[in-house]
Amino acid sequence: MQMPKPDASVLVRRMEIAEALRAIVPGEGVIDQPDELRVHESDALTAYRQPPMLVVLPESTDQVSEILAYCHAEGIKVVPRGSGTSLSGGALPLADGILLGLGKFNRILDIDYENRCVTVQPGVPNLAISTAVGHRGFYYAPDPSSQIACSIGGNVAENAGGVHCLKYGLTTNNVLGVELVLIDGSVVRLGGKHLDSEAYDLLGVITGSEGLLGVVTEVTVRIIRRPETARAILVGFPTVQSAGACVAAVIGAGIIPAGMEMMDAAAMRAAEDYAHAGYPLDAQALLIVELDGPEAEVDDLIVRLEDIARGSGADSVQVSRNEEERLRFWAGRKAAFPAVGRISPDYLCMDGTIPRHRLPDVLTHIQELERQHGLRCANVFHAGDGNLHPLILYDAAAPGELEKAEAFGADILRECVRVGGVLTGEHGVGVEKRDLMGEMFSEEDLKQQQRLKCAFDPESLLNPGKVYPTLHRCAELGRIHVHRGELRFPDIPRF
Amino acid sequence: MDGAPRQQEGKPRAMTTLMRPDSAEQVGDAVQTAIVESRRLDVAAGGSKAGWGRPAETDTRLDLSALSGSVLYEPDELVLTAKPATPLAEIEALLKESRQHLAFEPPDLGPLLDGGGERRSNVGGTLGGAVFCNLAGPRRIKVGAARDHILGFHAVSGRGERFKAGGRVVKNVTGFDLSKLIAGSFGTLAAVTELTVRALPAPEETRTVVLFGLSDADGVRTMTIALTSACDISGAAHLPAGVTLTSKVPGLASAGCSATLLRLDGTITSVAARVLHLSRLLLKLGPPTVLNTHDSVAAWRDIRDASFFVAHPEHQVWRLSVPPSASAEVVAQILDRRPGHAFYDWGGGLIWLALQPSTDAGEAMVRGAVGITGGHATLLRAAPEVRAQVPVFQPQPPPLAALTRRIKEAFDPHRVLNPGRLYAGV
Q: How many domains does chain A have?
């Protein structure tokens, strides 16, 4: 993994920079001791590590603004970090950059039931929002599996998803407003308690921008009423094809489930051994479909769902009779990652999205790749929205296995793009998929995205080396190439 | 040629030139030609919303109407790809065959903007227009706006370069989300040549629970009660007495008082159960009436299209997005001082306002009221000379205005695409 070459002229000024930051964030808010810096050397993608030059932990928007203004003036790179649960290396530090940790922004600022929104600081964990409003029957819908730990600021940076986003949307569909500090230190507000933006949808652009455009210091999210009821159905299939056909039939029948998850035999067995959820171990594919909403609607649709499952060739169908049973169905799926972690020393989690109907082809292709690369793979799949999580099993202690696993993962993602899908559905590009961007986008597509980056951060100081494989200078991107000799196209109909 | 062509000054052109490309390549050629010839393009798909925005500073029309028709529709994948000038009516008809729809319920604002006169445009607007203006109907509160339903697009930037962004799947965080930026850009960043949007199952059944005679404040409170219940409301609107009079739904027009409408849709049994549940919940506020499917559909179409304001084309129409609970107060502040009418959609979050005409369109009052609560106000309909004087879109604080200009620069450095339609210089 190639990162931008550290700037020696910045590194020699390390202590001077630390002093300047201490003038902004007094006390223990600036970390410069090597052993303490190492704590921050990676996020949840632990395959890549790099201690930052310095860590700064501001407590107020004013401090963030002063830090960014200072870094802007001095040409110092900044890597923002929430809880560090990114699976794509989005918060991987830079040797010559400061790591801007937002962990001290941990307060819930405003709960407004009438307008159905909550305003929080970015370091507040995702689940803490639902906990704070739960007693009134409300919750925050996006539920990434790291929701106990991951921060809402990180969710905004990555546009986090979760198992329920088919029905309730991703982070981007549930954020109403942010306070954002730009690299020059100016503070802007985008959105608020109202809907839609007054001009360019900068809120939509910031969401999922992986810390490349600005630092979010406050977030307003939409909360919704917890559905009256939820029921799940657990279906075992003799083939992946029949499970895939069932997914298509559910959607074709006009049903949008709250969640629709698939596991292949390998993932299911690992999960069953770990969580004892009662999964049908003779099945080749397992589907969990959950419906939620008004009781009358769920009762109505669950019957239709059962018919569709049987009609798609299911071997076994169980409908949850009570809340305990529903949670048991989920227990195995929710434990799938740690369960796989138990059967292999290490695993790489991929995150491609594909058109749903291509699932059987892609799984067959992955089986072929297992043979080619000599590594095993277990598949967990957000079937409702086509988001595939192949877990490639490897042993980091065995020389060359990480590289083999990376090559395997890259081949899977290439296949996802080839069948009409994308490199990442919810984990972000970060450093992990950066060098694969060319598989999905042309040079021209990437340059246009980077021009947007230039509008926010012309010196490319915010999280450089992430998302885009080539760092272009903004002046170079601004040049325009038109060929006068070939213009005045005679074939444009003019009247 | 490398480098920017010089702006040719002092060469006024009559707005007579029309370029009508019929392929993405030709759109690229047209924009490159505009750069070299220093033309300023009025980019339009169907042109039904030509009157929305600041009066154009353009001399050449880039007419995308030849880029029409759906390219791909896969009902089981919930996805549709179509060219920008595809009429929404055509798309809705296609989706209906598979019992699907565009869930964000794009309004047809043509009659409102045309001032009730003869239609200038093809009926019902186009997909490209709905996206460029980031439209959304009453279901906005439940499913979002056009921005939430675009999955990807192909376009030609103001640099004359073809590019794509996004994809055809819902869950996608690969690179910056340019689809959001294109939605609501009013054609100032790029000329779209193909759009991919979500198709979603259409509800089996729709009913509306109506309470009559509530004040604006009580109407908004009632909508809040309904929206914070577990009834899963898909539309919440309050029509004051003066507005219900002009309704085409007999049950509303004859009531002679205000109407607060709450829409329920879903499966037949579910809707029946929730109508009962909601009616019981609201019983202490008055006896609820239930509109049948036919009247329900008609009532929400009028709300969606702001049809109540079509009959008085001289009225200046504002569209305000505010925190829902503050909406009645915002309306009171404005209508206490200036004669006009208002009605509420999105549970109060959207205010439609029609004011007696004036040279300033009541801007200070409208934006003053919104300034207190937060939100934004757009002058949707007014004579061109008024829209030339009064900022049509919400003015931005200096750092945001500067950022907006830099984003324009990143896509359209020569300001050839709809220059000035959003803000002066953008």
A: 5
Exposure b/e, A202-212, CB count within 10 A at least 16 = b: bbbbbbbbbbb
Say if A1 falls within a structural domain.
no
Q: Domain end: B253, B278, B305, which one? A: B305
Q: Note whether A113 contacts B161, CB cutoff 8 Å.
A: no
Is the same domain home to B412 and B357?
no
Question: Six-digit token pair at A475?
Answer: 């002046």
Whether residues B77 and A357 touch (CB distance < 8 A) is answered with: yes
Same domain, A333 and A382: no
Q: Which of A188, A66, A175 is nearest to A118 (CA)?
A: A175
Sign of CA dihedral B120, B355, B137, A158: positive
Number of domains, chain B: 3
Q: What is the pLDDT of residues B363-407, one digit of tens each?
A: 999 999 999 999 999 999 999 999 999 999 999 999 999 999 999
Query: What is d(CA A35, CA B70) in angstroms, rounded to the nearest whole number?
Result: 59
**Over 70: is that where the pLDDT of A490 sits?**
no
- CA–CA distance, A125 with A143 (Å, rounded to integer): 11
User: B273 and A301 in contact by Cβ < 8 A?
Assistant: no
Q: How far apart are CA B66 and CA A493, in angstroms?
A: 10
- A369 in contact with chain B, both atoms CB, cutoff 8 A: no
Look up the domain containing B234 and give its range.
205-305
**Per-residue tokens: A175:** 């954020």
d(CA A298, nearest CA chain B) in Å: 8
Query: Cα separations (Å) of A221 from A61, A172, B22?
Result: 19, 10, 42
pLDDT tens digits along A198-244: 889 999 999 999 999 999 999 999 999 999 999 999 999 999 989 99
Q: Do B144 and A169 touch (CB under 8 A)?
A: yes
Best of B73, B172, B327 to disrupt the A interface (most A CBs within 10 Å) is B172
What is the Cα–Cα distance from A412 to A396, expressed in whole angstroms? 20
Partners of A177 in the beta sheet? A191, A220
